[in-house]
Design goal:
The chain has about 130 residues and is an alpha+beta fold. The chain contains four helices and five strands. It has a domain of about 90 residues: 2-Layer Sandwich (Beta Polymerase, domain 2). It is about 30% helix and about 20% strand. The longest helix is centred in the middle third of the chain and has 19 residues.
Length: about 130
């Protein structure tokens, strides 16, 4: 096993801000070709989280790949672990709770059924790169 210097490990005392976390999650989802990525800013609207990041995939394996990429990037590069993940790819909706940010990964056919963007329609959207 190669030696890893302590300075190359993520510092657990420097958790990214909730806005930065939402952006990191969006980028990780984009790495696995997630579609229609939206980050809703719930600060001032909700007491249980600061952001929802919502995205879609077009197959069950892709949903699994998206959530795994998000978890791996946040854990390995930023020392952030999910508090809980619920749902399985075959349910076509996976939710990952990172405390300040909750991620909803839908199969593209299921997303309109739940319409979270409309339910939280008064929440401003965080500007994300295309």
């Amino acid at each position: 096993m190669p030696f890893t210097s302590p300075t190359s490990l993520p510092n657990p005392n420097t958790r990214p801000s909730s806005e930065t976390l939402a952006r990191l999650i969006s980028e990780a989802a984009k790495n696995k070709k997630a579609e229609a990525i939206v980050a809703l800013d719930l600060r001032g609207i909700s007491t249980f989280t600061d952001f929802y990041v919502i995205c879609s995939g077009n197959s069950e394996p892709q949903l699994k790949a998206i959530v795994e990429e998000i978890q791996n990037v946040l854990r390995d590069e930023h020392g952030v672990r999910s508090l809980h993940v619920d749902g399985l790819p075959f349910s076509q909706w996976i939710v990952a709770d990172f405390g300040d940010v909750i991620v909803h990964i839908f199969h593209e056919a299921k997303r309109p059924q739940y319409a979270l963007e409309h339910l939280w329609g008064d929440a401003p959207r965080l500007a994300l790169p295309e």
